[in-house]
């Protein structure tokens, strides 16, 4: 009986983990930042407390598509920002993607935001982690 309860609990947890992911998301392998952008250093990297401002910017500008937790599950094709393939990109690559967008996939350019605010968004994206890291 105890084994059955444990098994059912494991199935329930797995279901919750899957529901937190955007299973429809397929990365655009052709959307790559140029090497010069990849190599850019975040001028705010030593000011992690500024991620709080990035969180506010994210809530205002990004959460509608990427979800409040960055999982991307609120719209069909929006990126899951918690995925290792996103988190492993350099700060410069993320900054470039935020700045330039990918209109083919519905990601607008956020170049109208001041540069330091875009770097704050990068800081905040770095804080986006799945509730259960094993889910990714």
Detailed description of the structure:
This protein starts with a helix and ends in an 11-residue tail after the last helix. It is an all-alpha fold. It has one domain (about 1-135): Cytochrome Bc1 Complex, Chain D, domain 2, CATH 1.10.760. The chain has helices at about 1-20, 35-40, 50-60, 65, 85, 90-100, 115-125. About 45% of the residues lie in helices and about 0% in strands. The model is unreliable at about 5-20 (pLDDT under 50). The relative contact order is 0.21. The chain contains 7 helices and no strands.
Calculate the mean pLDDT score and round it: 82
Determine the strand fraction and express it as a percent band. Answer: under 5%
Overall spatial form? globular
> What do we call the CATH homologous superfamily?
Cytochrome c-like domain
Task: Report on the biggest sheet.
Answer: none
**How many helix segments?**
7
CATH topology: Cytochrome Bc1 Complex, Chain D, domain 2
How many domain units? 1
- Terminal CA distance reads 30 Å
Rg over CA atoms, rounded to whole Å, is 17 Å
Top-tier CATH class = Mainly Alpha
- Please bin the fraction of helical residues: 40-55%
Poorly predicted tracts of residues: 3-20
Strand tally, please? 0
Backbone structural class: mainly alpha
Identify the CATH architecture: Orthogonal Bundle
Q: Return the string of H and E elements.
A: HHHHHHH
């Amino acid at each position: 009986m105890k084994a059955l309860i444990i098994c059912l609990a494991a199935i329930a947890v797995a279901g919750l983990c899957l529901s937190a992911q955007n299973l429809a998301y397929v990365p655009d392998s052709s959307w790559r930042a140029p090497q010069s952008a990849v190599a850019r250093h975040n001028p705010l990297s030593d000011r992690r407390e500024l991620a709080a401002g990035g969180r506010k910017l994210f809530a205002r500008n990004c959460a509608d598509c990427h979800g409040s937790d960055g999982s991307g599950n609120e719209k069909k094709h929006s990126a899951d920002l918690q995925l290792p393939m996103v988190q492993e990109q350099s700060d410069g690559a993320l900054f470039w993607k935020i700045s330039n967008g990918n209109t083919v996939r519905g990601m607008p350019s956020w170049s109208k935001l001041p540069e330091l605010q875009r770097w704050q968004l990068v800081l905040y994206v770095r804080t986006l982690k799945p509730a259960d890291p094993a889910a990714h």
